[in-house]
Design a protein that fits this description.
By secondary structure, this protein is an alpha+beta fold. The chain has helices spanning 2-15, 32-45, 109-115, 130-133; strands at 19-24, 46-52, 63-73, 78-88, 104-105, 123-128, 143-145, 154-155, 161-180, 185-193.
C-alpha cells in the first residue's frame, strides 16, 4: 500500500514539474565487541518471555522499530503506556515526521534490547534488572525517555521494571525529499519499507542480538 502511494505521488510530482529524490539513511556498523556486550546484557539483566510469537519482519539492527508498550514497576505502578519508536543503528538520524509526535522516542537500553529479536505482531514481557534501568553515562541518569525531540523526560527509580510490548513495525527507513516549484525549496518526509529480515532459528538463544 505504501509503495503504491509513493509511486502515485512521484508520478503526480513529475506531471506538475516538481522534482523528488530518495536518500537511504546510512546504516551504522555493529562491531562484534558491541554485539557481544549487548548479548551479555540481554542474558544477565533481562528476563524475556514471549507471550505471542509474531510472523512479520524482525526487530533488528539498522531498522526503525515501533511498538506499543506498557511500563510498570514490579509493584504494579504504571510508568508509561502508549506507542514508542526508535531508529536502531543509523549514523545519520532522519528529521522527525509529524507521526512521531504521538509517539515517544525511547532511549532506555533495556527496552531496546528487549524488543530486539521480536517479529512484528509478537507480544513480549520484559523484566529489566535495576542494573540496566539507569544509563551507563557519567550522570547515571535513570530515565525511560531522555532529552528527545520534544523535550520529553520520564524518569524512573533504580528498581526493576516490567515492560509488556507488542511490536507493530520494523522497517527500513528512507528519506523522500520533494522539490516544491512554487517555493523553490525541498521538503522531506521519512517513509519506511516493510522488507523482511533474517528469521529467528529455533536453535537461537533468546538473548541473541540481531
Amino acid at each position: 500500500m505504501l509503495k503504491r502511494t509513493v509511486i502515485l505521488l512521484v508520478l503526480g510530482l513529475v506531471q506538475f514539474g516538481c522534482g523528488y529524490k530518495t536518500d537511504t539513511l546510512t546504516p551504522g556498523e555493529l562491531p562484534e565487541s558491541t554485539r557481544t556486550r549487548w548479548e551479555t546484557e540481554k542474558r544477565d539483566f533481562l528476563k524475556i518471555e514471549d507471550l505471542k510469537v509474531g510472523t512479520g519482519p524482525l526487530a533488528a539492527w539498522n531498522r526503525r522499530i515501533e511498538a506499543n508498550i506498557e511500563v510498570r514497576y514490579v509493584d504494579g505502578t504504571l510508568i508509561y503506556r502508549g506507542p514508542t519508536f526508535f531508529y536502531a543503528g543509523f549514523s545519520n538520524m532522519p528529521d522527525t515526521s509529524v507521526y512521531d509526535e504521538i509517539s515517544l522516542p525511547f532511549s532506555q537500553e533495556g527496552i531496546r534490547l528487549g524488543l530486539n529479536g521480536m517479529a512484528v505482531g509478537g507480544k513480549r514481557r520484559i523484566t529489566i534488572d535495576r542494573e540496566l534501568v539507569c544509563s551507563r553515562d557519567a550522570n547515571h541518569r535513570c530515565h525511560l525517555v531522555g532529552p528527545g525531540n520534544f523535550g520529553e523526560h520520564i524518569y524512573v527509580r533504580k528498581e526493576n521494571i516490567i515492560v509488556e510490548a507488542t511490536l507493530t513495525k520494523s522497517c527500513i527507513p528512507t528519506r523522500l525529499s520533494v522539490f516544491i516549484l512554487s517555493l523553490f525549496a525541498w521538503t522531506g518526509e521519512v517513509v519506511c519499507w516493510d522488507q523482511d529480515t533474517p528469521r529467528v532459528a529455533s536453535s537461537d538463544p533468546i538473548w541473541r542480538f540481531y
